[in-house]
## 1
Amino acid sequence: MEGKAKQILIADDEADILEIVGYNLSKEGYEIYTAKDGNEALEKAKQLNPDLIILDIMMPKKTGVEVCQILRSQPAFQDTLIIFLTALSDESSHIKGLETGADDYVSKPISPKVLNSRVNALFRRVSNKETGKTITVGNILIDPVKFLVTINGDEIILAKKEFELLYLLASRPGRVFLRNEILSQVWGNDVIVGDRTIDVHIRKVRQKLGVDCITTVKGVGYKFEL
Amino acid sequence: MEGKAKQILIADDEADILEIVGYNLSKEGYEIYTAKDGNEALEKAKQLNPDLIILDIMMPKKTGVEVCQILRSQPAFQDTLIIFLTALSDESSHIKGLETGADDYVSKPISPKVLNSRVNALFRRVSNKETGKTITVGNILIDPVKFLVTINGDEIILAKKEFELLYLLASRPGRVFLRNEILSQVWGNDVIVGDRTIDVHIRKVRQKLGVDCITTVKGVGYKFEL
DNA sequence: CTTCCATGTTAACATTATGTTTACACAAAG
DNA sequence: CTTTGTGTAAACATAATGTTAACATGGAAG
C-alpha cells in the first residue's frame, strides 16, 4: 500500500529522547536516523535527504532554528518536512520556528503518542496532495483530483475548506476527529481561528451534501459515517 | 505504455554526481550515459543523439554553456532537451544558461528527488507535443498538429499560449490543474510570470471558444469540462 | 532599417467567492 | 435552572479571480 519506508532524521542532544522517539517512530514503520547536535544534523540531512527532519531547538553547535534556516536556503530541502521540538514555555522560539519554515512543532515534554500522530498527519497531508486518492463511502464519492463530490451521481460543489474538511473526516469513516486535529489538518498549525469556524463549515458541508453523514460527538469532535 | 527507454547523457567532472544522478535516473527507467568533461559530452552527444542531456556548467575542456551553444547551432540538436546543473550562488550562469537555450536548470547540491521530478516533467511536457494527439471532448476538437480548435465544425483560432493552455486542460477533462502545474507545463519552470497572466489567458480562451467549458476552482486551479 | 501587427505580459481596479466572527437560539447534562 | 457545548443566520473581512487597458516584444512586411 505504501511506497518504501519514509526516512526520518531526529536531532536532539538528549540521548533518552533520541531513543524513545526513535523507537516509537520505528514501530510506526519509519526508517530512523539520529544526530546529537546541529552540525551532525546538517551533515546527515545532506547525506540522507530524509523525508522528515525532527529538530530540537536547543542543541549544541547549532540550534534547530539555525539548522532549519540553513536547510531551507537550499533548493534540495525546500520541500523537506521539518518538525521542531520545543520547551513548552519557550513561545518565542515557536514563533521563530514557524517563521523559519517549519511544518509543525511539538512541545516538550514529548508524548510519543502525540508525536507519532503529528508525524503521521504531516505525511498524510502531503501525500494526499500528491496521490490524491478518491474516497468512496456508500454512495458518496470524493475525488480530490477532480475536486468533486458526488452523491448518487449528482455533483456537489464544495469550497476549498469545505472540501478539505469533508475529505479529512471521510478519510477514516467512523473515527472521531478532535477539534484540534481538524484544526491542524485543515487549517494548519499556525493559523488561529475561533471555535465556531469549524461548526460553520461543518454546517455548510452538511447543508450542501443534504445527507446526514457527519455526526457530532459532543465535547469531543466530529466523525463521518453513513 | 511508454515507447522505448529515453536516453539521457549526463556530463559532470565529479564522479560522485555522475554515479548518484545516473543511479537514480536509471531507477526511473531511463537509459544512462555519462561524460566527464565538455569534449566527451559533445562527442557522445553526436554519437548517441540522446533525448536529454544534463550538463554541469563547470567542466574541464569545455563548460556546459559552451557545449550547449555548440549543440544548439546544429540542426540535429535543435530539439534535444538540455538541463544545466549549476552552483547555487552562480546566478549569472543560470541566466546565461537559459539564454543559451537550456530547457531547465537545477542547482547544486542536487537532490535526486528534485532532479527526477524535473526530468520527468520535462519529458511530460514535450511528449504531448510529440505524440500530438487530437483531443475530442463532446463537440470540441483540439488538433495540435494542425494547431486548430473546432466546435461543431467552426474553426477557432487561438494564439500559441492560449492553445497550449486549452490543450493541457482538455488533455484530462475533469481533472483540476493547480496554478503551479499550469505554469510549469505551459510556461516552463524557468520563466517567472505573475498570477494574473494565467487568468488573462484563461479569459481569452473562454472568450474565443464561446462555450463555458473551463471551470474555476477557487483557491485551487482550473479544470476543463463540458 | 523602420513600421506594423499579433501575441504576451503587467498593472490597476472591479467583482466575486470564500472564510471568519458575532450574536443568539437551542439542547443536553449536571 | 444553570452551565456547557453546538447549531444557525447574518454581518463582516479577506482572498482569489475577472476584466480592461496599457505596455513590451518579436517577427513579418514593406
## 2
Amino acid sequence: MTNLGDLEIFARVVSSGSMSAAGRALGFSPAVISKRIKRLEDRLGTRLLQRTTRQISLTEAGQGFYDRVLGILTGIEEAEAYASGRSSQAQGVLRISAPTSFGRMHIAPHLTGFMKDHLDLKLHIVLTDDFTDIVAEGFDMAVRIGELTDSSLVARKLAPVRRLLCASPDYIARNGAPNEIGDLARHFCLPAHNNDNWKLEGPEGSLVWHPEGPLVTNSSEIVRAAVIAGAGIALRSTWDIGPELRSGQLVQVLPQWEGSKNLTLSAVYPSRQFLPAKVRLFIDYLAALYGPVPYWEQ
Amino acid sequence: MTNLGDLEIFARVVSSGSMSAAGRALGFSPAVISKRIKRLEDRLGTRLLQRTTRQISLTEAGQGFYDRVLGILTGIEEAEAYASGRSSQAQGVLRISAPTSFGRMHIAPHLTGFMKDHLDLKLHIVLTDDFTDIVAEGFDMAVRIGELTDSSLVARKLAPVRRLLCASPDYIARNGAPNEIGDLARHFCLPAHNNDNWKLEGPEGSLVWHPEGPLVTNSSEIVRAAVIAGAGIALRSTWDIGPELRSGQLVQVLPQWEGSKNLTLSAVYPSRQFLPAKVRLFIDYLAALYGPVPYWEQ
DNA sequence: TTGAGCTTTTCCATTTCGGAAACAATGGCA
DNA sequence: TGCCATTGTTTCCGAAATGGAAAAGCTCAA
C-alpha cells in the first residue's frame, strides 16, 4: 500500500529540484530520500525522475503524477484542518501568486488587515507577471488580470478592469491633447509590455491601435513612471492611475475611448471539491475589499 | 505525519459500519483497526466515530472528514493509475449507482460490450431509486434521471427524457380514449411513485394533473406492468415503453400532451481535478451508446 | 440470564524505517 | 586538463513501528 510519506518526499524533491535539498528540508538523510523515491518508482513501475548525480528532471509520467500529488497533499491538509475543528479558521501557509504592480498597490497594503484576523496563518506572496502554472508551482491561488480562460482552474471575479488613455497635464501643455483617435499618430505613445496593441472601444465600435513611441519596456512600473513624468500617452488601468487622475497628476485623454472591457480582475484556484478555508477566506476578504465598485474607481 | 493506511482503514470502517468487518475486509485483526482509528483521532484531536461495543456512528467531524477522505483516496488511485501508464486504460473497480428500471433496461444489456474492451476493470453496479449521496456511499458515478441540480457534483447530459401518456389498446377498447385533458378524470390513472403529480406540457401551456387510480405503488416496474396489462393510463418515459409502443402493446393517448421537458438523463460524478479514466470512459461509452437521439426514441 | 459479537488493551515477534559510512558519478573551477 | 565539492546510491545496523494473539470489558438480542 502506498505510503503517504513517499508522496510528500516526492513532492518536495520536485519542488526543491534535488534529493539532498529535499532531505535537508524534511529532516531526512539523503539515503532515505533516495530509497523512498526508488520504492515509489518500483511500486508504480515507472521512472518519475530522470536523474544525473548533479541534477534532476521530471519524466512525463512524473510531471503528471506530481500535479496530482500536489492536489492530494493539499486535500489531506484541508481534511485534517476540517476534522481538527479549524475548518472555519485559516491555518497553515497560504501561497499566493499575484501581478507585480497590482500586488504592490492593492494587495500588499491590505495584508495586515487580513493577517490580524488570522494569526495562525502565514502568507507567502510571490509577485510576478508571468502566468505561472499555479498547481505545478505549489500555489494555493493566484490573483490575475486578464480574460477568463484556463481550463482546470476556477476563477472568481473580483472586480472589472477599466483602462483609460491618459497623460500628464505637462505633456498636454507641451503637445496638445488629441481630439480624435487618429491624432495618436502624432503623439508619443507608451505601450506596456504584454499588450503591445491597444484594443480600444469607443462610440464607433472597437479598434486596435498599434502604439508607437520612444520607450519600450517590459515593466509596467516604468511605463507608469514615464507617463506621470510626461513622456507621452499611455493606456493604464484605473487601479493603477486612479489616485493620479484624482490628484491631477494625470488627465484622461480621448475619454470616449476605453480599453476593451473583457478584462477582469479575478482570483483563480485549482478546482477542488473542498476549498481550503484559508483560500476561501482570503478571496472573500479581497472581494469584500474591492466590492462591486472598487475603491480606485470612486 | 499522517499515515495513509489510517485513512483507508477509517474509510473502510465507516463504509462497513464496524471495525471488525473492516478488519476482515482489509485482512487486519480487530486490534489493529482499533489502534489506528484511535491514533488518527488523537492526531486530529477530534473524535471521528461515536462507538458503543455494538455499533458505530460518525460524529459531525467524522462525516466531513469521511467525505474528504473518499476524495483523497480516489485521487491517489487515479494518480497511481496515471503514473503506472494505465492512465488511458480503465483499471480497478468502477462503482456505479443507477435507477432500477433504467439500469435494468438500458445499462445492464450494454455492460458486456464495455467490459470486453476493459478487461482489467471490475464493475460494481447498484440499482436503487434513492438519490444516494454518491460521494458518501463511495460511488464513482451515478446515472440519474431528473432535473439538473446538485451542488458539488458535475453532471453530464446523456439524453433528453420524453414522457408520454399511454395505455393498452385493450384498455382503450374497453374505456375509450380520452380526447382532452379533462377526460382523464373519468379514467383509471396510474401514478408512479415519486411523481404523484403529472407535470404536463401541451399546446395550451403546462399543467399539473393529479392522477387518481386504483393502484398506488412505489415501484415503477409495477406501474409498467399494470399499464401493459390494461389497468389504466400512465405517464411513462419513452425509454421505458418504447418497444411496447412500437409493437402495439401500448398506444399513446392525448398525444398533444407530454411530460414536462426539464428532465434529463445524466451521468453525475464528484467534481475533481483529475477524473479517473474508468469514469470518463464509461460515461463516454454511455453517451456514444445513447447518442443525440437515443435508440429508444427511433 | 446467557451468549455471541464487538471494541480495547497488553505483550511479543516481526517488519519497516532512518542514519552513518562508503562508494560512484557529475559538473564547476582553477 | 585535472581537482574537488556536491549529489545520488548502496550497505549495514540499531531503533521504532506495525501486526497479531489472547484476554478483558461491554452491549444487545434471544
